[in-house]
Amino acid sequence: MSQPALVLHHYGSSPYSEKIRLAFGIKGLDWASVEIAALPPRPLLDPLTGGYRRVPVLQVGADIYCDTNVILPALDRLASGPSLYAGLPAGLSKAATFGFERDVWLAAIGVRVHFTGDGPADFLRDRKEDYLYIDMSHAAMEPDYPRHRQRVAAHVAWLADALSDPGRPFLGGDRPGALDLGYFHVLWLMRNGPHAEAVDRALGLEPILPWYARVTALGHGRPTALSPEAALTLARDAEPAPIEMRVAGMEAPGLAVGRAVTVTPDDFARIPVRGSLVALDAERIVIRREDEKVGTIHLHFPRAGFEVAAIA
Questions:
Q1: Which residues lie below 8 Å from residue 249, measured CB to CB, with a gap of 6+?
Q2: Model confidence over 167-193: pLDDT tens digits?
Q3: How far apart are CA 129 and CA 39, in angstroms?
Q4: Other C-beta atoms lying within 10 Å of the C-beta of residue 120
Q5: Based on the structure, what is the number of domains in the chain?
Q6: Each residue of 17-30: pLDDT tens digit?
Q7: Which end of the chain is more exposed for a tag (fewer CB within 10 A), N or C?
Q8: Tally of CB atoms within 10 A around 219
Q9: Residue 1 in contact with residue 55, Cβ under 8 Å?
Q10: What domain range includes position 115?
Q11: Which of 216, 246, 261 is a domain's end point?
Q12: How far apart (Å, rounded) are the C-alpha atoms in residues 204 and 286?
């Protein structure tokens, strides 16, 4: 069976997009790159996502994967190449990545803002009103910089200890995997730019810089540019792949196949996506949407970090 075409909707400065671009590098994949705007509106992406606004989004025909914690398992399941969960149990890798990202994300932003200052006004407005729900300006975040630095530095010390064995080039051992990417992209957010050496000194990153260089060297696989219009055509000309999973019996009453539901992130960019429930288990939520521009699509979300609710 031939490998399905992989389409990533992303933008260059997105740390979570970098996480997935490096996953393509690990697996040595060909993929189609759709460059999108860093801020909404994104009128050529919304028909695929139903208004979900976080980035990146992976498209495989008429199947749309939202959030890196569902994209990485999908890549491992659908694409050839080395496993993204080599050397560690997949569950351990997923749990550690989820916990790390949740614990340090705002602190990492605080560290970056300390060194870079304010971003563009429209970016700050978007992040405050519609995404992070906090004021990301330098004036607002700077008083908390000592606390932010300490929070990230504590995790860096644990990471350095995990990599202290010279015979362990990656967190899972000899081969890179999803856990490396989960830690790397947060550090990339803070180091990406001319202030990298200052960040290294502030956070004590020197012991892990050889590992950082090894992850960087993984590259991004083999991307080919694709227009947003062509991505819409791919979805319209495809059908969602068959789903083997169904709704688990432990769920609340009312969550049944075909029920109208919303799926909403439980932390940032809490915009509900509406559709009919296709499948639900401990790891994944799948809903079906109909759109006049693309026809029938399935949207896939991770269970951790998202809320699914029946529409009354």
A1: none
A2: 999 999 999 999 999 999 999 999 999
A3: 12
A4: 10
A5: 2
A6: 999 999 999 999 99
A7: N
A8: 12
A9: no
A10: 90-216
A11: 216
A12: 41
